Amino acid sequence: QVQLVESGGGLVQPGGSLRLSCAVLASGSIFSIYGMGWYRQAPGNQRELVAAISNGGITNYANFVKGRFTISRDNAKNTVYLQMNSLTPEDTAVYHCYADIEAAWVHRDFYWGQGTQVTVSS
After folding, report:
1. How far apart, in whole angstroms, are the C-alpha atoms of residue 109 and residue 27?
2. Phi/psi of residue 28, each to 5°?
3. Which of 27, 46, 63, 73 is deepest in the core (most CB within 10 A)?
4. Which helix (H) or strand (E) holds 107?
5. CA angle 34, 35, 37 (to 5 degrees)
6. Distance between CA 70 and CA 3 in Å, rounded?
7. 10 Å Cβ neighbour count for 38?
8. d(CA 33, CA 72)
9. Alpha-carbon span 61 to 22, nearest angstrom
């Protein structure tokens, strides 16, 4: 069984910063975690990709966060991070992390976190 546990969301003023974390917790053996990343969804909007990172460290960003957000991962801790700077009210959304996992009980599958709320408001 696998759980992705997000943390770091909250309320911040425009121009502020937050750092999101997502830890992969498993009861069985994980052979490899390939891609990891973050999506977000604001009320009434479609879910959109924010950032992604491969197991080799290759990153991809949505245009609306380039230069402001940085994605990183700690493979030893099975954790992905999202550093968010220069936040604006348009960044307000629920942020969900994902991980592409090969484990003892499955060849390869995607897992999702429950989400963490980010609110940017004055």
Report:
1. 16
2. -110, -175
3. 73
4. strand 106-112
5. 145
6. 23
7. 26
8. 14
9. 17
- Rounded CA separation 95/84 (Å): 12
Place of tokens 């009980």: 105
The token duo for 109 is 């599958």
In sequence order, the 6+-apart residues with CB closer than 8 A to the CB of 41 are 47, 48, 93, 94, 96
- Which amino acid appears at position 101 of this protein? I
**Both structure tokens of 83:** 């550093």
At which residue do the structure tokens 């408001």 appear?
121
For residue 56, give both structure tokens: 């080799």
**What percentage of the chain's residues is helix, strand, coil (to nearest 5)?**
5, 60, 35
| pLDDT tens digits in sequence order for the chain, 122 residues long | 899 999 999 999 999 999 999 999 998 888 999 999 999 999 999 999 999 999 999 999 999 998 999 999 999 999 999 999 999 999 999 999 999 999 888 889 999 999 999 999 99
